[in-house]
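Our platform keeps sequence and structure together, in a single record for each protein. Because each token names a local backbone shape, the row as a whole describes the fold. One such record is reproduced below, unchanged from the form in which we store it:
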Amino acid sequence: MSRKEHWENIYSNKQMNEVSWFQQEPTTSLALIQKNTQSKDDAIIDIGGGDGFLVDNLLELGYTNITVLDISANAINKAKERLGINADKVKWIISDITEFIPTKKYDIWHDRAVFHFLTQEQDIEYYKILVDDNISDNGCFILATFADDGPEKCSGLEVCKYSEKDMENSFSIAFKVKESFKYKHLTPFGTIQNFIFSVFRK
């Protein structure tokens, strides 16, 4: 099964509250975005946003320039259906991140869902090039990955785990670390997943 087929299957067979990453209100991501935006018109992209609720909350806060990228058409269609007419206020992109060719630069690049699923070196390197080339000058890169004491797998897939130092080393050429911290995510199943949140400034 290809990566795309895997995620299309997940989103066609599970409800949002049946996946481990579900958050009705992603408070940590929202706080970091609000802290690092200059204007409600800043260009924000949510990588692997799926049918998550970050976009709903950003719209409620008045942000006007939001893009959501996900590999799964099923996920994006679910989000559009939930948002109704508000879906027209968002740019939606269906793409594998390793095939994504942006047409603009972003002031905020947010990823709580994708980077730790990249386990092949060429995919990791392509991701690094993407953020280097497509975040605006003085833009912000908000990345959450599974911590070094996080899960070995997620949704049946192997993942890469990172320490705070690993994150700094991975992106230090183009970015400066503004802050980095561990975060304990409570899944809908009552289990804890340990994450590292890192905030980089270009």
